[in-house]
Amino acid sequence: MNLAIFDIDGTLVRSDAHEDRLYWQALETVLGVERETFDWTSFRHVTDNAIAHDVFRRQNGTAPSADALAATERHFAEIWREALAGMPAHEVEVPGAGTWVRELMAHEGWRVAIATGGWRRSATAKLTAAGIDATVLPMACANDALSREEIVTIARRRAEDTHGVDGFERVVYVGDGVWDVRACASLEMPLVGMAVTAEVRARLTALGVSHVLDDYRDAAAVLVALETADVPG
Ligand SMILES: [Mg+2]
After folding, report:
1. Domain 2-15+92-228, what fold?
2. Rounded to whole angstroms, how far apart are CA atoms 192 and 47?
3. What pTM did the predictor assign?
4. For residue 12, how far is its CA from the centre of ligand 1 (angstroms)?
5. Average pLDDT along the chain, 233 residues, taken 10 residues at a time
């Protein structure tokens, strides 16, 4: 039995056009911080929780309370749900993602899990909008751990528990971020790159990702990528 662990943003869902704007809207509204301009990769942990924490501490000199972070997560999910309600499904999902993930869930040789640096509530809203039932999938997110490596490891463990196995023969991550490449290299986990833009494709290829796909429309090709992808680097 094999396991495919999926990132969400830029991998299953085309959230890139709205993510930055809505994230800052939530931080400004609830945490009262000012918007900053930065390179996402400059943070030690690129997750919703860790970035909100770091930005608040940088601007206020103290860490935000757990309640304030929880309120920020709730507001972020709310404004994401509003944005998603006005978007047709084909604009939400990476082409073919919903159908393909449902097919993989029914495949006898594969199981599916989710590992995202996003908060749980917004992650669930995005998956639902892409036609993926988040309630039946083992998932780990920014609420579970700070680092991407830990989040991926927790998702893997939850998938083992869910399916009552001691381990999977092959575990592959599907992601689009530089941090996904780093996490997979450190965990020695094969990675299939997902590139919704030429820029992402170039970045992943330069980092030594063996298989980079544009979407899920060629179901057979995606399965071959899962079966043959290498550990990046
Ligand atoms: Mg991503």
Report:
1. Rossmann fold (3.40.50)
2. 20
3. 0.94
4. 8
5. 97 91 96 88 85 94 97 97 90 95 96 97 95 94 94 98 97 96 97 97 97 97 98 94
